[in-house]
């Protein structure tokens, strides 16, 4: 049957796919709109399969904190190229991902991607559809949740880095400002854990071995290597664990001391740092 411009435009409006893709799908489906939609969806899946191993180093990070300030979510929607990260369809999809996370309180990434949208299809189906339209890999690279007495969020100016900070024992103190300062500290200094107890044992073992080898290369006696390595490990904790880091705005205090100065007993119970690229 003849495919009219009106038919093509109707399918485009319903699917968001390009004009030529819509025309090809309608032609292949002999004008059947539902079959044409299925053809477009399969096209998206083909692109998803073909580009599954591609690197997604661009995209957008969004954060949301609940109205009462006690829970927060951060998502990273990633793509392959910067131009795609700027288009309206991609940014609208990122907002849809966050809206779904907030409205459903999805427990993890798998649950989030499986959530039905208004048309009954999953969020992952909608992501796959956009891959078919745009022609490159799109992925929810990260989805993180925290909850506490007070949650503070920070999005870096490039839109590709976000932080959530969970503060407990606030005791009625307004900790928004210090929370922002700590979030920016996390963004800049990339701590790997809250304190030394949160550092993975394999990382500790690696740092001890590195410390020993460095001391050995410097000609230190074998009997002293363990003590020297432990000193280097303590320096590693100071540089790489949040509560032990020097505050970037005032190096005379650590983050733990800053929290105590702000309100007695105030602590960071968790943080999430999400970055693309």
Automatic annotation (TrEMBL):
Translation elongation factor EFTs/EF1B dimerisation domain sequence ranges: 74-277
Record GO terms (molecular function): translation elongation factor activity
GO cellular component, one term: cytoplasm
CDD domains: UBA_EF-Ts
Keywords, sorted A to Z: Cytoplasm, Elongation factor, Protein biosynthesis
Compartment(s) of residence: Cytoplasm
InterPro entries documented for this protein: EF-Ts_dimer_sf, Transl_elong_EFTs/EF1B, Transl_elong_EFTs/EF1B_dimer, Transl_elong_Ts_CS, UBA-like_sf
Gene3D superfamilies tied to this protein: 1.10.286.20, DNA helicase RuvA subunit, C-terminal domain, Elongation factor Ts, dimerisation domain
PROSITE patterns per UniProt: EF_TS_1
Domain of life of the native organism: Bacteria
Record keyword Magnesium present: no
HAMAP family in the cross-refs: EF_Ts (MF_00050)
Its job: Associates with the EF-Tu.GDP complex and induces the exchange of GDP to GTP. It remains bound to the aminoacyl-tRNA.EF-Tu.GTP complex up to the GTP hydrolysis stage on the ribosome.
Protein family membership: Belongs to the EF-Ts family.
UniProt xrefs under PANTHER family: ELONGATION FACTOR TS (PTHR11741), ELONGATION FACTOR TS, MITOCHONDRIAL (PTHR11741:SF0)
Name of this chain's protein: Elongation factor Ts
Gene giving rise to this polypeptide: tsf
């Amino acid at each position: 049957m003849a495919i009219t411009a009106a038919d093509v435009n109707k399918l485009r409006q319903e699917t968001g796919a390009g004009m030529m893709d819509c025309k090809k799908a309608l032609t292949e489906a002999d004008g059947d709109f539902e079959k044409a939609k299925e053809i477009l969806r399969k096209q998206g899946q083909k692109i998803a399969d073909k580009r599954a191993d591609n690197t997604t180093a661009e995209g957008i990070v969004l954060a949301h904190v609940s109205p009462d300030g006690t829970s927060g979510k951060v998502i990273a929607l990633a793509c392959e190229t910067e131009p795609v990260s700027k288009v309206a369809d991609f940014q609208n999809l990122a907002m849809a991902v966050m809206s779904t996370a907030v409205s459903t309180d999805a427990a993890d990434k798998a649950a989030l991607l499986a959530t039905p949208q208004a048309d009954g299809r999953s969020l992952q189906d909608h992501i796959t559809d956009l891959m078919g339209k745009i022609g490159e890999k799109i992925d929810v690279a990260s989805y993180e949740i925290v909850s506490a007495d007070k949650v503070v969020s920070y999005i870096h100016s490039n839109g590709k880095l976000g932080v959530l900070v969970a503060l407990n024992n606030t005791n009625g103190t307004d900790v928004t400002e210090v929370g922002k300062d700590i979030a920016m500290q996390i963004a800049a200094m990339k701590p790997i854990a809250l304190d030394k107890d949160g550092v993975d044992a394999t990382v500790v073992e690696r740092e001890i071995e590195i410390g020993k080898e460095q001391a050995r290369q410097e000609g230190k006696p074998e009997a002293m290597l363990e003590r020297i390595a432990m000193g280097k490990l303590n320096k590693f904790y100071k540089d790489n664990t949040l509560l032990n880091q020097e505050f970037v705005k005032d190096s005379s205090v650590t983050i733990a001391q800053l929290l105590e100065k702000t309100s007695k007993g105030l602590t960071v119970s968790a943080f999430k740092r999400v970055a693309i690229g």
